[in-house]
Amino acid sequence: MRDSRGRSTPIRRHGAFAAVAGLCIAAISGQASAGGLWLYEQGTPDLGRAAAGRQAEANDAATASGNPAGMTRLKGAEILSGLQPLYPINKFKTDSATTTTGGDGGNAGSPAVVPSFYAVHGITDDLKVGLSLGSFVGGGLDYGDDWAGRYFVQSIDLLTLSESPTVAYRLTPWLSVGAGPVFVYSKLEYSRSLIHDNGFEPYQWQLEGRIGYYF
Q1: Is the pTM of this model over 0.85?
Q2: Is 79 part of any domain?
Q3: For each of the chain's 215 residues, which pLDDT tens digit applies?
Q4: Residue 9 lies in a domain
Q5: Using the 8-state DSSP alphabet, how is residue 152 labeled?
Q6: Looking at residue 179, which CATH number applies to its domain?
Q7: How deeply is 138 buried, as exposed, middle or buried, from its count of CB atoms within 10 A (0-12, 13-18, 19+)?
Q8: What domain count does the chain have?
Q9: Which residues span the domain enclosing 30?
């Protein structure tokens, strides 16, 4: 490795590297497509760094979600929880090209508070189990009953909840592996101003997975 002057610099011998791959294991029900706000930093201490290097660190119980293999680096039992407030701003502007009557709907963004919970427990010094609970994607819009686009959508809400039990084992003093399933519940509520249209509320359960290693 070379610095800005082209000189060779040593690489830290005891660095940490992790790779986490999401594995789609099975779909329990039909697919439902929707868009929402993705929250990668789920109220964890790495929020101030925008989750940079999250998979390579094992400093607290949030590693049960970021990289389950990192749980073997924790001592004893740890619990971490957080609340992340959101205040989205989403506005629509009508102009001369608008072909329907109605206003702009104001700020359609729906405020929310996103919870998260992580726990790690040591069975032995080399065997750890963990649990992650939270919501990592979602969002809501409510333009009201009298905005120009009411025939397309009046309100829409996407909610997800996830639960992930994980297990990790230290194979050698320098290598650990971890994995676990991810159970995701999602629900979409949608309404618009059309005769004989009461909107819909589809929901589904989905089973995914995560696996990682740490050294």
Answers
A1: no
A2: yes
A3: 443 444 433 333 333 333 333 333 233 333 444 444 556 566 566 666 666 656 667 788 988 988 999 999 999 899 999 888 888 888 888 777 777 777 788 888 888 888 889 999 999 999 999 999 988 777 888 888 888 878 788 888 888 899 999 999 999 999 999 999 999 998 888 887 776 555 556 778 889 899 998 88
A4: no
A5: T
A6: 2.40.160.60
A7: buried
A8: 1
A9: 18-214
